[in-house]
Input
Amino acid sequence: MHKGQKFISFPREGYYRFPLIKSYMATDDALLSKISEISELHGTLYIDEKGFSLERFSVKKSKIPVRKPTTRGGVYFTNTTAYKAKASTRVLSIIDEIPKMMLGPSADFKPILIKTDLQIDGVKRRLTLITHLTNTMNNKTKVELNLIVDKINLE
Output
């Protein structure tokens, strides 16, 4: 650790500390890269201001099955790699909202927000991931959602 080095901390399921580039003014990619180092986060998923508690979620960078950057369905832009979020919830009422969230079944395709709190330089901050849904899997007890992160906000 270097003198004066700043850290980003995530106070759930243990205490995570990561060096933060340029304090909390880091680029989206740098912040998402640090968040992707955590295997399990907790937060709330919002669809049209309706909140669904997430049992856990994680963010990872991976390849997208396109050969070149493109606009998907005329709705959102994708590059050849993206940060993907995987979230799970035991709130089964979210199943009724899924047709509204996916590009294919819905003409009113809307972003999905995932919000969580984290500590940055000793200050509690609200992180919001702005995402869109790519697919879901569910069983009798939980729903897993796979999303692509379009943008992040740090308040």
Q: What stands out?
A: Strands lie at 7-10, 16-19, 41-47, 50-63, 70-72, 76-78, 81-89, 112-120, 123-138, 143-154. The chain is about 10% helix and 50% strand.
